[in-house]
Write a structure and sequence with these properties.
about 110 residues; Double Stranded RNA Binding Domain; about 15% strand
Length: about 110
């Protein structure tokens, strides 16, 4: 597995006064640097090392988000009152509850 296939983000950290590099698949890892480029290089290096260590220890290695397959379905539990309200709003709009919720999630 190539560590460059993971999902990276670089953000400014006011608290640290530097950029912080993060990896979505390995949220416990980070790298601070004065530059965005340095933060990205640093977190990729840390992830590469962590993946090698996981393999060496026989631990599972997270699959990159980009390599995962998504069905387009997920379930959400909400209070019955909210369910009723959403069903009413969908009926009044003349659309399915699924369509109403999907439309709201894209906003």
């Amino acid at each position: 597995m190539n560590a460059r296939h993971y999902t990276y983000r670089v953000l400014w950290s006011d608290e640290d006064g530097e950029y912080v590099g993060l990896c979505a698949e390995l949220p416990g890892l980070s790298w601070l640097d004065a530059s965005q480029e340095g933060a990205l290089r640093g977190i990729v290096k840390v992830v590469t090392s962590a993946v090698a260590d996981l393999r060496h220890q026989g631990e599972p290695v997270p699959e990159p988000l980009a390599a995962r397959h998504y069905s387009g379905k997920f379930q959400v539990r909400i209070p019955p009152e909210r369910h009723r309200l959403l069903a009413l709003q969908a009926a009044e709009a003349g659309i399915s509850l699924n369509r109403l919720v999907s439309d709201r999630l894209t906003v």
